[in-house]
TrEMBL record:
<dbReference type="InterPro" id="IPR015424">
    <property type="entry name" value="PyrdxlP-dep_Trfase"/>
</dbReference>
<comment type="similarity">
    <text>Belongs to the class-III pyridoxal-phosphate-dependent aminotransferase family. HemL subfamily.</text>
</comment>
<dbReference type="InterPro" id="IPR049704">
    <property type="entry name" value="Aminotrans_3_PPA_site"/>
</dbReference>
<dbReference type="InterPro" id="IPR005814">
    <property type="entry name" value="Aminotrans_3"/>
</dbReference>
<dbReference type="InterPro" id="IPR015422">
    <property type="entry name" value="PyrdxlP-dep_Trfase_small"/>
</dbReference>
<keyword id="KW-0627">Porphyrin biosynthesis</keyword>
<dbReference type="InterPro" id="IPR015421">
    <property type="entry name" value="PyrdxlP-dep_Trfase_major"/>
</dbReference>
<keyword id="KW-0963">Cytoplasm</keyword>
<protein>
    <recommendedName>
        <fullName>Glutamate-1-semialdehyde 2,1-aminomutase</fullName>
        <ecNumber>5.4.3.8</ecNumber>
    </recommendedName>
</protein>
<dbReference type="GO" id="GO:0042286">
    <property type="term" value="F:glutamate-1-semialdehyde 2,1-aminomutase activity"/>
</dbReference>
<dbReference type="InterPro" id="IPR004639">
    <property type="entry name" value="4pyrrol_synth_GluAld_NH2Trfase"/>
</dbReference>
<comment type="pathway">
    <text>Porphyrin-containing compound metabolism; protoporphyrin-IX biosynthesis; 5-aminolevulinate from L-glutamyl-tRNA(Glu): step 2/2.</text>
</comment>
<keyword id="KW-0413">Isomerase</keyword>
<comment type="subunit">
    <text>Homodimer.</text>
</comment>
<dbReference type="Pfam" id="PF00202">
    <property type="entry name" value="Aminotran_3"/>
</dbReference>
<keyword id="KW-0663">Pyridoxal phosphate</keyword>
<feature type="modified residue" description="N6-(pyridoxal phosphate)lysine">
    <location>
        <position position="265"/>
    </location>
</feature>
Amino acid sequence: MTSNDGLFERACHHIPGGVNSPVRAFGSVGGIPRFLERGAGAHVWDVDGKRYIDYVGSWGPLILGHAHPAVLEAVTRAARNGLSFGAPTAAEVELADLLCQRMPSMQQVRLVSSGTEATMSAIRLARGYTGRDKLVKFEGCYHGHADALLVKAGSGLLTFGNPSSAGVPAGAAADTLVLPYNDVDALQTLFAQQGDRIAAIIVEPIAGNMNLVQPSPAFVNALRTLSQAHGSLLIYDEVMTGFRVGPQGAQGLHGIQPDLTCLGKVVGGGMPLAAFGGRADVMAKLAPLGPVYQAGTLSGNPVAVAAGLATLNEIAAPGFFETLGRQTTALAQGLCDAANANGTVFSAQAVGGMFGIYFSPHPPTSYGEVMNSDRAAFNAFFHAMLEEGVYFAPSAFEAGFVSCQHSAEDLEATFAAARKVFAQIAL
Ligand code: PLP
C-alpha cells in the first residue's frame, strides 16, 4: 500500500470521508484523492513524490502559483508581528482602500474569512436594507454553504446529485427562488409577479460551479435593469471571478455596477480571507453603524491580509491579465486540438485565468446543458491525465484555473499528455 492510500485510510478514521471539503474526495470521478505535500509555481507534489501540473490552484486562489516568494515574504513578515489581534490594523485599512480602488462599484468593504461568510452576510445585509425576504438565485450557481443558499447549488452538490442538503430547515430555504441561468424570460416573469418582495438577486456573473458557463449579454443586462426597476439589490458573487477573470472581475468585463460584490479566493492569496462590499448607503446598515449584525473573531486577520495585499500588488503588474488570458486561451485551444485530432467530442473555453473543459460539442449555457455532457468520458480523461501528471479538478462540474507560473513548457506537456490520453482511452 502506498503512503497515499495508507493516509486516506487513516484519514477516514477521524475525518468524515477522509476530507475537510467534499469535492476533494474524488466522489464524482471515483478513486482515492491525492494527498499533497508541496507546491511550487505551477506544480504540486503528492506524498509519494509524484509531480503534477496543477490546474486546480487550491480551487482558484493561487493566481500567482504555489508558494510565490512575494506572498511568502509578506506572510512571514506579518506572522512575526503576531498572528491575530481582534483589533483594527493599518494593513486591513490598506486592503480596504485597495479593494475599493480596484472595484469601482465598491465604496465600502468588510473583510471576512470565507466566501460563504461573504455571501451569507451580503444577503442578510440586502434583506436588512430592503426590508424584504425573497432572494433569487440560479440553478447550478454555488454561493457557499449557508442554509438559504443550498438550493440547487453547483459543484460538490451537483457532483453528489444532491440538489439541496439534509439539515436545512424548509423555512430557511423557503424564500430562495431558483431560476435557470441565462433565462431572461423567467427572470422577467418572476419580477413582474413578485418584484416588490425580492430583496436581492445573487449571481455568479460567470458561473464556475457547474463547470464554466458564460452569461449572455441580455441576461447580464436583465439582472441589472430588473433589480434596479424593482428596488432589489444585485449581488455579484465574484468569490471565484474577482481578480481572476480580469482586474475588475466579471463586473469589469460586463460593464455592470452591482449594488454589492462578494470576493474571496484570489483576494486572500491562499489564506482564509474574503470580503463583501458595495454601495456606501447599503454598507451603512451594517453593525456597528446600522442594525444588520455581522462579525468575526478572525475577520481581517493580519497574516491573511498580508497575503491578500501581496497578491493584489503582483497582479497589478502591467500586462498581467493579458499574459494570463493568453496562456489560459492557449490551454483551452490546445486541449481542443488534441481532442479534434482524435475525433473526440470535446470543447473548451477560457475567460481570463479561468477555463472550462467539456465532453460536449459546444460550451454549455445552462445547468441543463452541463448535465448533458459526457461525464463518464470526463472521468476517464481525468484519471488518465492524473496518471500522466496533470491535475485537473476531480469533477466534470468544476472550472479550472491557470496561474501566471504556468509556462509554455507546462502547456506543451499538458497537450502531449492529452494527445496520448485521448488516443489511449478512445473516447
Ligand atoms: N461563491 C462562489 C462563487 C464560490 O465559488 C465559492 C467557493 O467555491 C463560495 C462562494 C464559497 O466560498 P468558501 O468556500 O470560501 O466558503
